[in-house]
Amino acid sequence: MFKVGRRAMHNTNFTNSHRQRGVSKIGLLMLLVFITGFLTAGLKVAPLYVDHNLITGICQELIENGEAANMKVSDVRNRVANSLRINNVTGFELSNIGLRRGNGVPIITVAYERRVELIANLDVVAKFDSTLQ
């Protein structure tokens, strides 16, 4: 039945291996659930970072233009509030923006956390703490 030697190695026929291609239904379902989970998480978390970059960008621009040197904290907050209103950003407390001066240089701090419901009772918490000079 079985041949021994070199010939036996070459005559071994794996006819079933060509039929085992592709993904099973369960494998495809698991892949779909995995991709859907990542897309859901990404679509809920990404706006948090976009909003934060907008806020810090506005504050950094005030510092780079030299406008922050002559502003009060309420002026900085008003400028940020106007930009947030234009860009339709909600849920940000302006009290999270602080302004101080160190060696005559304005330093703006933006520190807050945002919570987004991911699925049912599972939330994602993002903490932001930026110091801009």
Strand portion: 15-25%
Radius of gyration: 29 Å
What sort of overall outline do the alpha carbons produce when their principal axes are compared?
elongated
- DSSP, total strands: 3
Question: In order across it, which strands form the biggest sheet?
Answer: 1-2-3
Polypeptide structure, described:
This protein has one domain. Helix 2 (25-65) crosses helix 3. It has helices at 6-11, 25-65, 73-86, and strands at 97-102, 105-119, 122-132. A three-stranded antiparallel β-sheet has the order 1-2-3. It is elongated, with a radius of gyration of 29 Å. The longest helix is centred in the middle third of the chain and has 41 residues, at 25-65. With 133 residues, the chain is an alpha+beta fold. A hairpin with a 2-residue loop joins strand 1 and strand 2. It is built from three helices and three strands. The model has no long low-confidence stretch (mean pLDDT 86).
List the helices and strands and how they pair.
Layout: H1 6-11, H2 25-65, H3 73-86, E1 97-102, E2 105-119, E3 122-132
Sum this structure up briefly.
The chain is α+β, with helices and mostly antiparallel strands and 133 residues long. It has one domain (20-132).
List keywords for this structure.
single chain, 3 helices, three-stranded antiparallel β-sheet, 46% helix, alpha+beta, 133 residues, 24% strand
